[in-house]
Amino acid sequence: MNDYRILVVDDEEDLCEILKFNLENEGYEVDTANSAEEALKMDICNYNLLLLDVMMGEISGFKMASMLKKDKETARIPIIFITAKDTENDTVTGFNLGADDYISKPFSLREVAARVKAVLRRTRQGETEHAPEQISYKTLVLDIIKKKVCIDGEEAPLTKKEFEILLLLLQNKGRVFSREDILNRIWSDEVYVLDRTIDVNITRLRKKIGIYGKCIVTRLGYGYCFEAE
What we know:
By secondary structure, the protein is an alpha/beta fold. 40% of the residues lie in helices and 21% in strands. It is built from eight helices and eleven strands.
C-alpha cells in the first residue's frame, strides 16, 4: 500500500466507482465526487492527484482546474482530465490550464493506472529536486542532508530510526500516524517488527529532544503526531 490519495471527480457515478475500485486495487487511497461543486467542498489540498471530467454541471472540469491553479494551496496538485471530448482545441485548453495528462473516453483501466503512476512519479521527482535541506521547529533543527538533529546548536544523538520518525512527524505537523503507518514507512524492509518497538523508539526520541519531546503527542487509539505549541 502506498501513501497517495486520489480524488476522482465525474458526474457518472458508475464510472467513479469503477475507477475507485481499480485504483484502490493498485494501492491508492481514493475518494470520489459527482460534481465540481461537491469536490470543492472537500479538503482538496490533502490529495496527491485529481482525475477530473471536463463535461460536468455549472462548473466544468476546466473551470474547476482554473480555480485550483489560482489557489496557492492547491496549485501544485497534478491534474489528469478524463473526458469524451478529444478535439485538439480541448486538449490544448487542458494543458494550458496546467493539466499533467489528458485521457479520452472510452479508455482502458490499464491505461488509466499507467498514466496515474507516471504522473505521480514525475510529481515525486519534482518534489525531491526541490526538497529542503533542513526542516526546523523553533530551535529544533533537522538536517536532512547530514542526517543530524540539533537543539539550540547542540547535536542530539539520535539513532537512524529515531531520526526517520522525527523527520516523518516534523514534515507532517499535526497529522496523526498510526503504528502501522510508521511501520510501513520506517521499517518497510524488515520482515517482523512489534508495535512495542515503535513505542520504545518514540519514548527514547522524546527524551533525546528535550523540551520538544512534549510536542510528540499520543492520540490514544490512533497513533502519534508532532503538535506545534
